[in-house]
Each structure stands twice: as structure tokens, then as C-alpha cells.
């Protein structure tokens, strides 16, 4: 691996606290006139009111009373909405076209970057990063005009976990901190069978972490508050129709893994984990019976002393936990759906006893790192 340039010395900020509005998923909001541009002087005052949501066909940023929108073809993906570390851009990736869609918070300007990627992470400031085969970390500064460019050439060492009869089928960046980029390299036999081998890419070396028990397919990750530990969610598939969701933490420095309690359900999946600055781990979950046509139920759970507990009083597709004395952001789940369908719900903002429905068919939420748990 070539030695990284100085720009790799700064990484994304750790997860922080939540914004001061309550978001649930529950109805459609009316179109708003074009919002005024936020100046640099206004940004600090507006930051606490900013959050984003995504449907299958739209990325939207709610900024106080204004809603900024960017059309997109996000399809079946249940991935989270992310923000750049400076909070100036919300972004999501179209998995089908492998195009990154970014929405500027200040004025709603939309950027579409053909990244040839399925995942991207916030690196520093307004800079995003993604993996390009056969071995490059690509970056782009959304606040500038320069096109995406390679930041680092990478040669991945052998995984400490031997191949299990599959072949390598690409890699992707799944999380980042000031200290590490976390990369998942996929071993596949095709169809539903896959295993993920992890690597921690630091400023001076690549640490091959290998496979984590239970975190085989559909791996997603989030950074922990200490900057070198990550929470992982994924599934061990038993068949094309049934698997078991698992959640674990991994310390990139020591490769120490801590498995969290098993999730409920005959068949289950876990995805979109978050690790708050207060140490709270939450994860989106689904469970269903291994019977043809069986519906699945959805909820977001948080780790607790005796296993897992719901984050809300009713099942939610997604939720950003508030700090004490603050409001909540959540997507309220609807009726059970088919096991293969993408969970969706109604977005509701609740503050001071007032409940306002904003949108329907919402898949996921996100907030700037300084306002998210």
C-alpha cells in the first residue's frame, strides 16, 4: 500500500447527539416553495433543525420549515441516509446505477456522481470516499468543482479467514472514523451465498480482520464513539428464504469481537446499525416465519442488559434517539410486508405535543453527525 497523503490524516467525526425534533413516519407533506439559501453565518443556527429521509424514489432534507428534494432511483435498498462530516451535504447511493446522489443543505443543489459504487462514506469536511476496483480509494469534495480522483492505491493482504469455497466478488467501504476506513471484501458463490472479510485501512497500514461469526451476508456497519471500534450487522443465511440476523462489535486495533445477543424470530435480518455517543447501540430488524408467503414484521431495537428492547412505543422502520429533554425522530412502521419487500413507513415530526405528518413510504433517516445518535 502506498503511503497516504496528508489529506488522509483527518477522518470523519464520531457520532454525536440527536437533533431537537421528533420524527416519525406517517403521512405526506405538501410541496414547499424554493427555500432561501443558508449563509455560512446562518449554518450553526440551522444545523440543529436539519435531518434527511429517503424513499425509493427521493432523497429529501428537512431544514426547519423547508424541505429540499432530490429525485433518485434507490429501489429496494434499505441503506441509511448519510451526511458529510461538516453536515453540509446529505447523500445516498443508487445501487442499480451505482450513482451517488448528494443534496446540498444550504440551497438544495443536487449532484449526481457516477461512482461505480454501491456504498460511500463521509471522510472529512465535505469529502466522500468509496472503493473502486481493483484497489483504489476514490474521493470527491462536494464543496468544490474538481471531479472524483484516486486518493490512495491499496493492495489488500490475504484474509486471515480462509475462503469457504467461493471467489472474491468486489469490495466496498462501509464505515469510517478519524483512525480507520472499514472495508468489506465479499466472497461469493453467487445467488444468496456470501461471506464478508473485513479490513481496517489506517494511515500507515492495512489490518486484515477476516470474517466475523454470524456477519456473513448483507453486512452494514457504523463507527463507535471511540474512533476504532465498529458495530456490525448482518445475516447468516440458512437458505434462500431464511437466515438469522446477528450484531457484533469489532475493535479494529486488536481485532477483538464481541457478539451481541441473538435477535428474536425463526428467520430474521439485522441492518442499519448506529452507535450513539452515549454508548447506545440500535439496529433495524425484521423477522418472519420460514413459510412461503409469510409476512415480516419490522422494528428498531436497542441493546439492553437482557437482550434487545424496542426503541419506541410502537414498531418503527427507523428512529434517531433523542437526548434527554429533546424530541425523537422516527419512521412509524405500517402493516407487515412480504419478507422480500423493503420496509417503509410514515414520517411524523412531533414536538411540544404537536404531531405533523411529513411523508409516506419512507425507508430510512439520517442526521448530521453532531445531531445523531
Uncertain regions spanning at least 5 consecutive residues: 1-34, 38-48
- On the 0 to 100 scale, the average pLDDT is 84
| Approximate helicity band | under 10%
Distance between the termini: 34 Å
Please, what is the oligomeric state? single chain
Q: Number of helical runs? A: 1
What structural class do you assign from the helix and strand content? mainly beta
**Integer-rounded radius of gyration:** 19 Å
Strand content: over 45%
The total of beta strands comes to: 30
Shape: globular
What is the makeup of the main sheet? 5 strands, antiparallel
Describe the structure.
The chain is mainly beta and about 375 residues long. The chain is built from one helix and 30 strands. The chain has one helix spanning about 45; strands at about 20-25, 50-55, 60-65, 65-70, 80-85, 90-95, 100-105, 110-115, 120-125, 125-130, 135-140, 150-155, 165-175, 180-190, 195-200, 205-210, 215-225, 230-235, 245-250, 255-260, 265-275, 280-290, 295-305, 305-310, 315-320, 330-335, 335-340, 345-350, 355-360, 365. A hairpin with a 2-residue loop joins strand 3 and strand 4 (about 65-70). It is globular, with a radius of gyration of 19 Å. It starts with about 20 loop residues before the first strand and ends in a 7-residue tail after the last strand. The relative contact order is 0.20. Mean pLDDT is about 85; it is low at about 1-35 and about 40-50.
Amino acid at each position: 500500500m502506498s503511503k497516504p497523503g496528508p489529506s488522509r490524516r483527518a477522518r470523519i467525526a464520531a457520532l454525536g447527539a440527536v437533533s431537537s425534533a421528533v420524527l416519525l413516519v406517517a403521512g405526506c407533506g405538501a410541496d414547499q416553495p424554493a427555500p432561501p439559501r443558508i449563509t455560512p453565518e446562518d449554518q450553526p443556527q440551522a444545523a440543529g433543525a436539519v435531518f434527511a429521509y429517503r424513499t425509493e424514489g427521493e432523497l429529501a432534507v428537512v431544514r426547519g420549515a423547508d424541505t429540499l428534494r432530490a429525485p433518485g432511483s434507490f429501489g429496494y435498498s434499505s441503506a441509511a441516509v448519510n451526511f458529510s462530516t461538516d453536515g453540509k451535504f446529505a447523500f445516498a447511493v443508487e445501487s442499480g446505477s451505482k450513482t451517488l446522489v448528494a443534496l446540498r443543505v444550504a440551497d438544495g443543489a443536487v449532484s449526481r456522481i457516477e461512482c461505480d459504487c454501491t456504498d460511500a462514506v463521509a471522510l472529512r469536511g465535505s469529502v466522500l470516499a468509496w472503493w473502486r476496483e481493483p484497489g483504489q480509494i476514490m474521493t470527491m469534495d462536494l464543496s468544490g468543482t474538481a471531479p472524483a480522483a484516486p486518493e490512495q492505491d491499496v493492495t489488500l493482504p490475504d484474509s486471515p479467514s480462509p475462503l469457504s469455497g467461493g471467489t472474491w466478488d468486489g469490495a466496498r467501504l462501509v464505515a469510517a472514523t478519524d483512525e480507520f476506513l472499514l472495508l468489506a471484501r465479499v466472497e461469493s458463490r453467487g445467488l444468496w451465498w456470501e461471506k464478508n472479510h473485513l479490513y481496517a485501512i489506517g494511515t500507515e497500514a492495512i489490518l486484515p480482520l477476516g470474517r466475523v461469526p454470524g456477519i456473513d451476508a448483507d453486512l452494514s456497519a457504523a463507527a463507535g464513539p471511540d474512533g476504532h471500534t465498529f458495530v456490525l450487522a448482518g445475516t447468516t443465511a440458512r437458505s434462500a428464504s431464511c437466515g438469522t440476523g446477528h450484531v457484533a462489535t469489532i475493535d479494529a486495533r486488536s481485532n477483538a469481537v464481541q457478539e451481541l445477543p441473538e435477535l428474536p424470530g425463526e428467520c430474521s435480518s439485522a441492518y442499519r446499525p448506529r452507535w450513539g455517543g452515549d454508548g447506545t447501540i440500535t439496529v433495524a430488524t425484521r423477522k418472519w416465519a420460514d413459510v412461503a408467503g409469510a409476512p415480516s414484521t419490522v422494528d428498531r431495537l436497542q441493546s439492553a442488559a437482557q437482550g434487545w428492547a424496542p426503541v419506541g412505543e410502537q414498531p418503527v422502520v427507523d428512529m434517531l434517539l433523542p437526548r434527554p429533554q429533546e424530541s425523537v425522530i422516527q419512521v412509524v412502521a405500517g402493516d407487515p410486508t412480504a419478507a422480500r419487500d423493503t420496509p417503509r413507513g410514515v414520517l411524523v415530526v412531533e414536538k411540544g405535543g404537536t404531531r405533523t405528518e411529513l411523508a409516506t413510504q419512507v425507508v430510512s433517516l439520517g442526521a448530521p453527525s453532531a445531531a445523531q445518535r
